[in-house]
Amino acid sequence: MDEIDGDVADTTLPNRWKAAVEWTDVVIGATSATSSPSTPTTNDSLTRAERAELTLTVAVAQGFSKAAIAWGPAPDLPTMVIPTPGS
Predict the structure, then answer these.
(1) DSSP strand E in the chain: where?
(2) Which H/E stretch holds residue 57?
(3) In this structure, what are the phi and psi dihedrals at residue 9, rounded to the nearest 5 degrees?
(4) Is 78 exposed, middle or buried, given 0-12, 13-18 or 19+ CB atoms closer than 10 A?
(5) Whole-model pTM above 0.85?
(6) Which run of H or of E encompasses 58?
(7) pLDDT tens digit string along 2-13?
(8) What is the number of other CB atoms lying within 10 angstroms of the CB of residue 8?
């Protein structure tokens, strides 16, 4: 995680991982995003199917994150204790 804080191009990560991080920044609309759908690094490192899967995964995760913030924390629910069956 320390390697992707800031400019990912200056890290020791493999090019595929750098491309995935850069693409994720584009999908979430990060202001530091430097990639675009036609960036050579992204196109050379990730297949079209991988970019589609990554895009969907990031979009769903971001959607759930925003929903969780909007809905607020879960109310306190009673804890159900189920004893382990004896032997």
Answers:
(1) none
(2) helix 48-71
(3) -65, -25
(4) exposed
(5) no
(6) helix 48-71
(7) 767 767 778 888
(8) 21
